[in-house]
Specification:
Layout lengths: L16 E5 L10 H7 L4 E9 L13 E5 L1 H18 E11 L2 H11 L4 E7 L1 H4 L9 E5 L1 H18 E11 L2 H11 L4 E4 L5 H11 L7 H8 L2 E3 L9 H7 L8 H8 L50 H13 L1 H6 L19 H5 L5 H13 L11 H17 L21 H8 L6 H13 L4 H14 L5 H11 L5 H11 L10 E3 L3 H6 L4 H6 L19 H6 L15 H21 L6 H17 L10 E3 L1
Parallel strand pairs: 1-2, 1-8, 2-4, 2-7, 3-6, 4-7, 8-9, 10-11
Antiparallel strand pairs: 2-5
Enzyme class: lyase
EC number: 4.1.99.13
GO molecular function: deoxyribodipyrimidine photo-lyase activity; DNA (6-4) photolyase activity; DNA binding; FAD binding
Length: about 625
């Protein structure tokens, strides 16, 4: 029989309880918040709050999902929660699921709990619940793949907690409201949750810690003798420390970040063999980790779902599989990946697990370093696998230290560019109807899988913005945010700033060709044939440019361009040259005004662009351009 953990910490009175609030960090391994919650407590309440804003179906969204997430991300989350619940059960606990505004749920829990540790996850309906009017299955904020992934991750976390003698508590509701309710109804002496720099969680933390005038939880916690523990474990470094080292400003280049960061110094959390049991949950309505069907989703929304299952168990399995090929790990170079590889992707596909915290980035980093110690040679940052983790750290740091990082307006590091407002072009790009098979196949993979190779992401982002359509990067960012299962606020915004040449990368003449770039990796077009089956019988000579195929060839392939598959929405040669010219003029404006570009300045330049297009000859002279082939 295991001794009570209170014996290990004489400073924690016997009989005191802890509430472990899961947001990200849906794992048992290397989870310092869970470790601290268990230390010296007779009970732990592992809590997840279902936030209606994230999970509930949005009938008006353009794809199945909630307002904030597509159905794939919601599914992934549910799978992750189920896995977490399973893990907690192995530890002798379970996941407690409540629904509501997280901070309100938390306060109610803290008031009602007293002698136990409660691992808690709050399901936000605004994130998870179905949006029937979305352009793809999911909620308003997330596609179905991300929602599914989250559910799988929760289930896996619950499983891990059960192995430790606990379980995951899942509640549903606006997170801050649910958490406040929990604080009011449960008597808890320790509140533990992983620190997060995402603005969504920063806003929740303000409510929980007293930054909101309505919910002054920090004062409540202090008066009630509740200890708040919020460690940095979602990232390898603490972004605030890096910014402080740089004089209060975030480093704006990868190399300057590396110099400031140096070698990380951290100790992984101890491996838990058990956790204190869950105590009395009082009047709180505890849920099981819900299924997609219980959230209002139906599988008929699409014919193919992401092959990536959520959860810590799957994350660790994938990690072991990747690390088993030491030569591949040692020789990994990001630019050399194949964006057309879909049967066996050319990367680890661990990004969704890092996003939800099913896999500890610190543990991943340590595992990679262990491999490097046992090989003669290995690649180095920025192209190595360790380099990819450090790119993640870089974007987290810049995003945390840059006001309005997710916007063009008010963002000091973002070029001010008068993007167009052509919703028809945006809709064609989103719906995979641009007429360019390479671009459309990538967008279909995004919609069905919620994931695609980073070079594929670069291709479609460049095409939408500075390469061809000249549509605002924020609009593309929003679609990625909804549909990607690995959508991460800092990284998604950072990559769109980069690919649109709005920040970080400024060589706007270098354009990804929607024809030759994909052909270089996949001359037969197998990737296109898989994701665009209407083109499966098109000869390889025409698979990237089907509009150039003779009518007889189109007829034989059972795909008439303009009827069965759209004609190109633009001429790439013409559009890319126009975009290059516009980018040059926008850059000149930013340089002349030293970045202090007003909305009126942008309107004037936009009018000039429109006038230039009106004056243009029907068939402009073809100009030379630099293509990324």
């Amino acid at each position: 029989m295991k001794p009570p953990l209170s014996l290990l910490n004489p400073n924690m009175p016997s009989g005191s309880g802890s509430l472990m609030w899961f947001r990200k960090g849906l794992r048992v391994h290397d989870n310092p918040a869970l470790e601290y919650a268990s230390r010296g407590s007779s009970c732990v309440y592992p809590l997840f709050v279902i936030d209606p804003h994230y999970m509930e179906l949005d009938p008006d969204a353009y794809s199945p999902g909630s307002t904030r997430a597509g159905i794939n991300r919601i599914r992934f989350l549910l799978e992750s929660l189920a896995d977490l619940d399973s893990s907690l059960k192995k530890l002798g606990s379970r996941l407690l699921v409540l629904k509501g505004e997280p901070s309100e749920v938390l306060i109610r829990c803290l008031n009602e709990l007293w002698t136990c540790v409660y691992p808690l996850f709050v399901i936000d309906p605004h994130y998870m619940e179905l949006d029937p009017d979305a352009y793809s299955p999911g909620s308003t904020r997330a596609g179905i793949n991300r929602i599914r992934f989250l559910l799988e991750s929760l289930a896996d976390l619950d499983s891990s907690l059960k192995k430790l003698g606990s379980r995951l508590l899942v509640l549903k509701g606006e997170p801050s409201e649910v958490l406040i309710r929990c604080l009011n109804e449960w008597d808890v002496r320790k509140l533990c949750f992983e620190y997060d720099t995402d603005p969504y969680y920063q806003a929740l933390d303000d409510k929980v810690k007293g930054g909101c005038s309505i919910h002054v939880l920090q004062n409540y916690a202090s008066a009630a003798g509740i200890e708040v523990f919020s460690p940095v474990s979602h990232t390898i470094f603490d972004p605030a420390d890096i910014i402080e080292k740089n004089g209060g400003r975030p480093p704006l280049s990868y190399q300057s970040f590396l110099k400031l960061a140096g070698e990380p110094s951290f100790s992984l959390s101890v491996e838990l063999s058990w956790t204190p049991p869950v105590g009395d949950v009082g009047r709180c309505e505890i849920l099981q980790v819900p299924t997609l069907k219980e959230l209002g989703y139906v599988e008929k929304h699409q014919d193919e779902f992401t092959p990536f299952r959520g959860g810590e168990s799957e994350a660790l399995r994938r990690l072991r599989e990747s690390l088993s090929d030491k030569e591949w790990v040692a020789n990994f170079e990001k630019p050399k990946g194949d964006p057309s590889a879909y049967i066996k992707p050319a990367t680890t596909v661990l990004s969704p697990y890092l996003k939800f915290g099913c896999l500890s980035s610190r543990y991943f980093y340590q595992c990679l370093k262990d491999v490097y110690k046992n090989v003669k040679r290995h690649t180095s940052p920025p192209v190595s696998l360790v380099g990819q983790l450090l790119w993640r750290e870089f974007f987290y740091t810049v995003a945390f230290g840059t006001p309005n990082f997710d916007k063009m307006k008010g963002n000091k590091i973002c070029k001010q560019i008068p993007w167009n407002d052509d919703d028809k072009l945006l809709a064609a790009w989103r719906a995979a109807r641009t007429g360019y098979p390479w671009i459309d196949a990538i967008m279909v993979q995004l919609r069905k899988w919620g994931w695609m190779h980073h070079l594929a992401r670069h291709s479609v982002a460049c095409f939408l913005t500075r390469g061809d359509l000249f549509v605002h990067w924020e609009k593309g960012r929003d679609i990625f945010e909804r549909l990607l299962i690995d959508s991460d606020w800092a990284i998604n915004n950072g990559n769109w700033l980069w690919q649109s040449c709005s920040s970080f990368f400024y060589q706007y003449n270098r354009i990804y060709s929607p024809i030759s770039f994909g052909r270089k990796y996949d001359p037969n077009g197998n990737y296109i044939r898989h994701f665009l089956p209407i083109l499966k019988d098109m000869p390889k000579e025409y698979i990237y440019e089907p509009w150039t195929a003779p009518l007889s060839v189109q007829t034989k392939a059972k795909c008439i361009i303009g009827r069965d598959y759209p004609k190109p929405v633009i001429s790439h040669d013409t559009a890319s040259n126009e975009c290059r010219k516009k980018m040059g003029e926008a850059y000149a404006l930013n340089q002349r005004l030293k970045g202090l570009v007003s909305e009126e300045d942008l309107r004037k330049l936009r009018r000039k662009f429109d006038e230039d297009e009106d004056k243009q000859e029907p068939k402009p002279r073809r100009q030379r351009q630099k293509l990324i082939k």
